Amino acid sequence: MGSVPLFSSPNAGSVTTGGNLWRSKHSTKNIYYAIVGGNLWRWKHSTNNINYPSLQHKRKTRIEYNLLRSQQSSLNHQYKCNEGGPTYKESNIKYVVKAAPAPSGSESLASSPKNIFDSVKNFLVILYYFCYPYSMIARTLCTISASFLAVEKLSDISPLFFVGLLQVLVAHFFMDLYINGVNQVFDLEIDKINKPYLPLPSGKLSFTNGVFIVVSSAVLSFWLSSIIGSRPLIWSLILCFLPWTGYSVNVPMLRWKRYPLIAAMLMFSSWAIIFPITFFLHMQTFVFKRPAIFPRSLIVTVVFLSLYSIGIALSKDIPDVEGDKKFGIHSFSARLGQKQVFWICVSLFEMAFGVALLAGVTSSACLWMKIVTGLGNAVLASILWYQTQYVDLTSPASTRSFYMLIWKLLYAAYFLLAFIR
């Protein structure tokens, strides 16, 4: 049964008409009129030499529909014209008018929260990749690990401790967003080659929105630290903001990432000195109101992160040699070759795990903490060495996967460093 859509009228009811329509015969034309809901609809059924039902003759029929549109402003109902199959070779025409209720205000409002939720969810996913999550996770774990170094007794782990920890986490979250974001803003053309999956080069985040996120994040970071009033926290943010801005911003005398030695020193100073020391002092002097000291555990952390951060600074450029060469960034990987830099990095990482292992087994902590720190660092060093066998230095995907493994091992190392005393 064929179906021909007609037109809509908000005042129409449900009507079915068959062969009982009003019929007016004009020579070879049959005109049918149907009055529904006060509106006059016209259906023009035109045939040539029509012979009505006969068991002996069958002819082709041509049907022409001329519709007079309703002048009503609202189109809220759907009408269907269904042509019935032949009965005794007689063609019966049926019109079925179905009322389709207009969507109520409550239904349109019900879909609104879902759309808002989806928009927020998509934005958070884009923001997640915009902020280099692996570095942000590492900095967060560094904050927690360094803060626990200030804990001298079990009673120190109190609501006061967690409030002080939260102050650093929130303020540095926005600073991390600024540092990672400003790097992506000025590396847009390079990332189209090296990292096309990032939000800016992939087009998922517009350049204007990226700049807005970067600027607002820096402002929020300093605003929160001024409200908190912790001097170690304020200095931590300043000492991160200034050098990393110079690292990324492409203006004369800046853009320090073009110079591999300066870039390595920035990575070293931030991860090995600024982060652990300022986080520890914030908890020690501002939260616990104790005098500033440098315990053995903090010194071990600084030595470990010194070796590890230099390894990260060198290895991060191994997957990006192609784009760096094209844009004149002479990293150590571009100068010395990927293979040589790779094994230098592996040696630095293994040395860092060795320092942590020795410090753990010789610490003044209880026996189980010595076992955890010693055995844990031995396991991390073994995993690193085992994975070096499967790295293809000619494949950016393989070297990038190894780079992410380095960060994951650092996550675990932060957990072990908190137990060294």
UniProtKB/TrEMBL annotation:
Transmembrane spans: 126-151, 160-179, 205-225, 232-249, 261-281, 293-314, 341-360, 367-386, 401-420
UniProt topology in membrane: Multi-pass membrane protein
Classification via Pfam families: UbiA
Any GO CC annotation of this UniProt entry: chloroplast membrane
Protein's cellular compartments: Plastid, Chloroplast membrane
Coiled coil: none
Biased composition (Polar residues): 1-19
Gene3D superfamilies listed in its UniProt record: UbiA prenyltransferase
Swiss-Prot/TrEMBL keywords: Chloroplast, Membrane, Plastid, Transferase, Transit peptide, Transmembrane, Transmembrane helix
Biological source species: Glycine soja
Family membership: Belongs to the UbiA prenyltransferase family.
Molecular-function GO terms, alphabetical: prenyltransferase activity
Record's protein name: Glycinol 4-dimethylallyltransferase isoform A
